[in-house]
Amino acid sequence: MKRSRLTIKKHQQGVSLVEMLVAMLIGLVVSLAVYGVLNVNEGRKRTTTSINDIDKVGIYTLHQLDQSIRSAGSGLLSGVKSSIGTTDAIDHTLGCQMNAALNGTTLLPASKSLAAPFSNAPSNFRIAPVIILDGAAPAGDDIIMTMSGNGGLSETASKFYDAPQTDSLSLPNLAGFYEKALVLITKPPSNNISPCLIEQVKTGFVAQVGSKTLPLGGAFYQSTINSIALSSFDIDSHVINLGLSPAFQLFGVGENSTLFRYDLLSLPSSDSTPPNPSQFADSIYQMHALYGIYTTVGDPTSLTWVTPTGDYEASKLLAGTSAANATLASIKAIKIGIVMQASLPEKDVVSNKTITLFSGTDQAVTVNLPSNALNRRYKALETAIPLRNGLML
After folding, report:
1. Which domain holds residue 283?
2. Please, what's the largest Cα pairwise distance for the chain?
3. What is the pLDDT of residues 280-315, one digit of tens each?
4. CA separation (Å) from 100 to 229, 270, 286, 290, 319?
5. In angstroms, rounded to a whole number, what is the distance separating the alpha carbons of residues 74 and 92?
6. 274: cis peptide before it, omega within 30°?
7. By 3-state DSSP, what share of the chain in percent is helix, strand and coil, each rounded to 5?
8. At CA 337, angle to CA 147 and CA 323, rounded to 5?
9. CB within 10 Å: which end of the chain, N or C, has fewer?
């Protein structure tokens, strides 16, 4: 009997209810502690990832804008050193109203408003290295327009040898011109800067020694654009080689914190592939810009920063007059400020609901952060970019 009772008692040994509850409580506490650690680590990881992402995008964006602005005016302003006669070629080019067509469709001047976020851009575009279209800060973003050629050869202006024909130009020599290259044809100004035409060199053209005829043809060729006929240009006109893909473009921030690029020499998005405008960079909440000008001509130490308003309003800079060109020539640098917005939301909201750009100047801009997205990370980035070609003016 004793052995039997001992055996039964031994078989009944185990964990009591109290012990089980204590073990469950300890396990719950440990689980909560682990969850807390994981939650903190996940929050830090999300924050670190957000900051790294907007840093990378911001640096890339400013680098690309730097490249575009630093090269602005390339192939368009160099004619000042190769003028023939009493009028410099640059006087033909700077401020001239562009007329261009692609496959029979007029591109410039634009027949209707451009797609967002460029709907407030002018329909008549004139040659200028860089123009800032004021977005009425802090409510709106600025739009930056840059123009440059990439001919690589013969980027200085060539004066006509004889009056042009409907489908060809007569030049002293054809060095530097090649097939499919776009060319800008300008005429001497009268009271205001005259209109200019963008045409294209015919496919299959090869320069021959002694030849003076540059044949025109291709998608960008049209003998008359907006009532401006090629035959209306006289022997005092000039032609500039723009290359195969000149950069005449707009940059502006649109919906979903996206920076868009618009190619002025491409059809709008409904008629083009790839789309136009196209996405250029994401995570950009706002973009603003200032002009850097010399208050004393030729004195770099007199550089000061001004907003794109008043005398530097886009409509005045693009007036196509000698006075407007003189103001354009005073612009020597561009300062850009962008506010980056992280794509990943976080638990905590930002403490500051505004960000100040250009605080080191007299033209500080206060950007109000969106009330419905205060749980995202924001960062301001700025850069000052000299106009390499504009410094020669």
Report:
1. 51-392
2. 133
3. 999 999 999 999 998 887 777 788 999 999 999 999
4. 12, 18, 31, 29, 19
5. 15
6. yes
7. 25, 30, 45
8. 45
9. N
